[in-house]
Specification:
The complex is a heterotrimer of chains A (324), B (286) and C (252). With 324 residues, chain A is mainly alpha-helical. Chain A has a single domain, classed as MetI-like (MetI-like fold, Orthogonal Bundle), CATH 1.10.3720. Chain A has helices spanning 2-6, 8-13, 23-61, 64-67, 81-112, 115-130, 133-160, 175-199, 203-211, 216-225, 229-245, 248-253, 271-278, 285-323; strands spanning 71-72, 77-78. The mean pLDDT of chain A is 89. Chain B is flat and about 85 Å long. Chain B has a domain at 73-235: MetI-like fold, CATH 1.10.3720.10. In chain B, helix 3 (69-99) crosses helix 10 (237-245). In chain B, 71% of the residues lie in helices and 0% in strands. The two termini of chain B are 39 Å apart. Chain B has 286 residues and is mainly alpha-helical. Chain C is an alpha/beta fold and 252 residues long. The longest helix of chain C is centred in the middle third of the chain and has 14 residues, at 118-131. The two termini of chain C are 36 Å apart. Classes of the chains: A mainly alpha (324), B mainly alpha (286), C alpha/beta (252). Chains A and B meet through helix 3, helix 5, helix 6, helix 7 and helix 8 of A and helix 1, helix 3, helix 4, helix 5 and helix 6 of B.
């Protein structure tokens, strides 16, 4: 037994800094560590396997995979530009719509609302995050899209139709509808992180603003919004990351037409929705490979955005602690 | 130097009122979709609920009637299978993070979990497809359960870690000082004392994976009949909602709403229960 | 005007729990009034009732009158925002706005009121910083963040910020309890200097501080004002037994 300890690999597996190690402890520790390693390995396997099915597509199409917009399973010409466009535009649109509303919600719930109303409304906003994406989808198909087609889009077209943004027939489904539904879905994310950020501001700063003769809104701007800029930014980036990965609700209301159009009324396609639509019945290995390549790209982008958001939030929290 | 501090008082008061009103209005706007979705799901789904709805299989295409029995069972089965592995695995990994949480393995695990939690769930589906559907030459409940497992485990791991970290250090030290071996301290004192918190973490993960659709689309796929075992394509509630909703049949639309009602109720009840267990959440006001 | 600020039977509660019972006292112009007493006796709460900050806490209630320059600040229809411009406050822990520079911190009060002209702001900032005995230390780094200063400097920054709005009364809630002795001494010196321009009501835990800088002192105990009078009499021949016990260190 002691000879085993001489092997550095065994030593490194043992808990550090313990002189007397109970046998049960050692076994327990090793089993737990094994499970931890299993989970880490599953991520490695995920990336590896994804890469291995996607690789043929990258090899075949090269960089053009991202710059060409034709996507044709029949002739096996795969270009993802339309999906990239769809993903980026719908997510950015969602963020533009959601950010002001989410920040307003965070301010309202934390600073303005009376206790019980605040709890109730806060609960409802958080439940927005719990509703499954497919339920958003069915609501989108049967309520939101028809409403867009009969009320909102004609209104926009009537008043702003000269803008290329609102060009084209009002289908109901399309980029705008997808953006709206995603905005609803990412609102709880942005708002709950913003609320956390707002909570870290000590009440003495709020009181300092009030003591100077600030109105409530001026106090909110001076004491809270100004001090939370990077935190709010991080929350928004995290919301963007969530929007990027959104699949079912988007698939059901975006119209599923891989095209690039300046109009928000136009149907489109996102990276997630093309996989959802075509993978199960993919016609060939290259088709599957191309879809997996889309998936890998989505994975990497999602990683970057979420990682970036976390970095921003972590740094803003640190900076705040040192300042206050 | 004299200046007039009162000059803009009225304007400032108006701006204040307008701002507070806007905050209230925007919050109402944010909450409306919840009310709308809940309302529609109840209004369209409730009339379709019946004993027959829950216990019969789907009818052939075009025929009226039928139910969601296989989808309901399929969802329950896959979630149960995933949880059989996922709950212990996640809890133990979370215990590892909280009790032995220094070092490279722990940091990497945290990073891994954060990553897996934020990855689009359809990617997890691709992983399960390659790992299980391909070698098995077909869609299966195993693949579906595996995909759900991959989503569940990182969630349970992280919440377990957070909950266990709340246990004060002196409780552990008291146990150790009494000569109790560390593993017993962890199981008997730390874990057992956190059961309610750990349960809420598990419940939240259950609510999430019950509603996941994308990863099932090409793992468990779909089945209009009972799945004769886990190695067959399996119907599930979310996939049923999706398929029926985008179909051209009104009857299927109605059933989709009813299935959505079931799902929403399930998720809401779980979420409300976790709130009751954990008690009042800390308020924002000071 | 013999009384600048007068409190008449001010009572206050937090969610039904009463913390101040019918406190009455008056403050003459250019006085420094110290409020002393053991922790939790209500002196800070009383201070906050003077600039209507107490009612901002959910569930907090106030009754009684506070008369500033012959006007009851609690009368119906009075806007607390306007009152707070006339009664400034310096807090226990220095609280400069974290996102603002030194300059912007000092100017914050008058910027809120709509003053925009650069020359006016520049002059106001310099005047306040000089009054707060901070100008020489920061004049070359006005753009630096307010939080980059030391604790004592930050507190003087907060005092400057309050001074900019030119309130006739400044309330100070244990302004030196979080500071080192040297900064404390500087601020005490500052308070005495400011007497010619403003009237100060200061809550302090430190009896020696009260004895050093104040003209009148009020002793609080369990939400009541036990005794109020010239500082010298309070400390040498107090009328109430409780006051004497506190002064001599019997409790608190």
């Amino acid at each position: 037994m002691e000879a085993l300890l001489a092997l550095p690999i065994i030593r490194s597996l043992l808990p550090q800094g313990r002189k007397e190690i109970h046998l049960g402890d050692r076994f327990f520790y090793l089993s737990l560590k094994t499970f931890a390693v299993v989970i880490i390995c599953s991520l490695v396997a995920l990336v590896y396997l994804l890469w291995s099915i996607a690789a043929p597509a990258f090899a075949n199409y090269g960089f053009h995979f991202f710059t060409v917009s034709t996507w044709n399973p029949v002739t096996e010409k795969f270009g993802t530009l339309a999906f990239i466009y769809g993903t980026v535009v719908s997510s950015v649109l969602a963020l533009i719509l959601a950010a002001p509303i989410s920040i307003a919600v965070a301010l309202f719930l934390n600073e303005v609302a009376h206790r019980h109303i605040g709890t109730l409304l806060g609960f409802m906003v958080e439940m927005l995050a719990a509703i499954p994406s497919v339920v958003y989808g069915i609501w989108g198909v049967f309520w939101l899209a028809p409403w867009m087609r009969s009320v909102v889009q004609p209104f926009l077209k009537g008043n702003f139709g000269w803008l290329p943004l609102f060009d084209g027939p009002p289908y109901g489904v399309g980029m705008l509808t997808a953006g709206i539904i995603m905005a609803i879905m990412i609102t709880p994310t942005i708002s709950s992180i913003s609320r956390e950020v707002f909570r870290t501001i000590p009440s003495t700063i709020r009181e300092g603003a009030l003591a100077l003769g600030a109105t409530k809104w001026e106090m909110l701007k001076l004491a809270i919004l100004d001090s939370s800029r990077s935190g709010i930014f991080g929350a928004c980036v995290l919301g963007l990351g969530r929007a990027f990965g959104e699949t079912m609700a988007v698939t059901m209301v975006i119209g599923n037409r891989p095209q690039i159009s300046a109009s928000l009324f136009a149907p489109a396609q996102t990276m997630a929705s093309i996989i959802a639509n075509e993978y199960a019945e993919a016609s060939s290995d290259m088709h599957r490979s191309a879809l997996a390549a889309v998936g890998l790209s989505l994975f990497l982008v999602s990683l970057l955005i979420n990682g970036g958001a976390r970095l921003i939030l972590w740094r803003s929290e640190r900076a705040f602690r040192s300042r206050v | 130097m004299i200046w007039d501090l009162q000059r803009f008082d009225r304007r400032r008061r108006w701006k204040n009122r307008l701002a507070i009103f806007s905050l209230t209005a925007l919050t109402a706007v944010a909450v409306l979709p919840f009310v709308s979705i809940l309302g529609y799901v109840i209004q369209r789904g409730y009339p379709v609920l019946s004993w027959q709805f829950f216990t019969s299989l789907p009818k052939p295409v075009g025929e009226e009637g039928g139910g969601i029995a296989n989808a309901l069972l399929g969802s329950i089965e896959m979630v149960a299978l995933a949880s059989l592995i996922g709950i212990p695995l996640g809890t133990l990994a979370g215990t590892y993070l909280s009790e032995f949480g220094r070092g490279k393995v722990a940091t990497t695990l945290r990073f891994t979990c954060d990553l897996l939690v934020s990855v689009p769930s359809i990617i997890v589906g691709l992983f399960a497809y390659t790992l299980i559907v391909v070698p098995m030459h077909g869609f299966s409940g195993y693949a579906g359960a595996f995909a759900l497992l991959m989503i569940q485990v990182p969630m349970v791991t992280r919440t377990t870690e957070e909950i266990l970290k709340l246990v004060p250090q002196h409780l552990r030290e008291a146990g150790l000082a009494l000569g109790i071996p560390r593993w017993k301290v962890i199981i008997r004192i730390v874990l057992r004392g956190s059961v309610s918190g750990l349960t809420t973490g598990v419940m939240l993960a259950l609510a999430r994976i019950m509603g996941e659709t994308a990863p099932l689309l090409f793992t468990a796929f779909n089945n209009r009949f009972w799945a004769e075992g886990f190695n067959q394509p399996t119907a599930s509630l979310p996939v049923l909602i999706y398929t029926y909703a985008i179909s051209p049949y009104d009857d299927w639309h109605a059933q989709a709403w009813a299935a959505a009602l079931v799902l929403v109720l399930f998720v809401l009840i779980l979420n409300i229960s976790t709130r009751i267990i954990i008690g009042r959440r800390p308020e924002g006001r000071h | 005007m013999s009384e600048l600020l007068k409190a008449e039977e001010v009572s206050a509660s937090f969610s039904g729990h009463q913390v101040l019972k019918k406190v009455s006292l008056s403050v003459r112009p250019h006085d420094v009034v110290a409020l002393i007493g053991p922790s939790g006796c209500g002196k800070s709460t009383f201070l906050r009732c003077l600039n209507r900050l107490h009612e901002e806490v959910p569930g907090a209630t106030v009754s009684g009158r506070v008369v500033l320059e012959d006007e009851d600040i609690y009368a119906n229809g009075v806007d607390p925002v306007k009152i707070r411009r006339k009664i400034g406050m310096v807090f226990q822990k220095p609280n400069p706005f974290p996102a603002l520079s030194i300059y912007d911190n000092v100017a914050a009060g008058i910027k809120l009121a709509g003053i925009r002209r650069r020359s006016v702001l520049d002059e106001a900032v310099e005047t306040s910083l000089r009054q707060a005995a901070l100008w020489d230390e920061v004049k070359d780094k006005l753009r630096a963040p307010g939080t980059s200063l030391s604790g004592g400097q930050q507190q003087r920054l907060c005092i400057a910020r309050t001074l900019t709005v030119r309130p006739p009364v400044i309330l100070m809630d244990e302004p030196t309890s979080a500071l080192d002795p040297i900064s404390t001494a500087k601020i005490e010196e500052l308070i005495v200097q400011l007497k010619s321009a403003v009237t100060v009501v200061i809550v302090t835990h430190n009896m020696q501080q009260a004895a050093r800088i104040s003209d009148n002192t009020g002793f609080f105990l369990m939400g009541e004002l036990i005794e109020f009078g010239p500082t010298r009499s309070i400390f040498t021949k107090p009328r109430e037994k409780k006051t004497e016990e506190y002064i001599t260190g019997r409790f608190g």
